[in-house]
Design a protein that fits this description.
Elements lengths: L9 E4 L9 H12 L5 H8 L1 H11 L5 H12 L6 H5 L7 H12 L3 E6 L9 H7 L2 E4 H4 L6 H11 L6 E5 L6 H6 L2 E4 L3 H12 L5
Helix pairs in contact: 2-3, 3-4, 6-11
Amino acid sequence: MVSENGRRHGLLVDYGGVLTSNLFDSFRAFCAEAGIEPEGVANRFRSDPAARQLLIALETGKLPEEQFETEFGAMLGVSPEHLIDRLFAGSTPEATMVEAVARARAAGVRTGLISNSWGTRRYDRPQLSQLFDTIVISGEVGIRKPAVEIYALGLERIGLEARDCVYVDDLAFNLAPAAELGMTTVHHVEPEQTIDELERHLGVRLR
């Protein structure tokens, strides 16, 4: 239940782009290094159905990383060798957000991760175990955002009702299913703004 003062007791967050720096900046850095147009990677996923299907299969654990790298590398006209690692090479931890989640959990807020994965081996598992009560990764459960089922699974595992939880994501279209379930949503653009909103919704200090 949400307390009488409106405080929510659950926090569910995305990983890439929330607990890390902006992933699209990393993609642009890759494009610059590879000598292709700055939005080459992002535009492939936005406008090329074949690239989109590759991404969906990878994120749901149905496509091996090596096969994705071979096929997507051919689409981009770049070497497939370590392609995923190269795409994410510019991504760094967002320390302010990591600390905010840690503080929320220490204050008694139940915390959970809901993440679409490009392979499951790149997560810092010891860190995640310190930050979260539950972890839902698309490649491990076979469901990806924005399918409503992955949010429902996060709620089930965190053991709270949707109305008692806040969900944070950097992609606006990933917020809609959480809101439809009844969660309060926060569109992450930059850490200070997100933390301001979380402090208001959770009723705890996060910095």
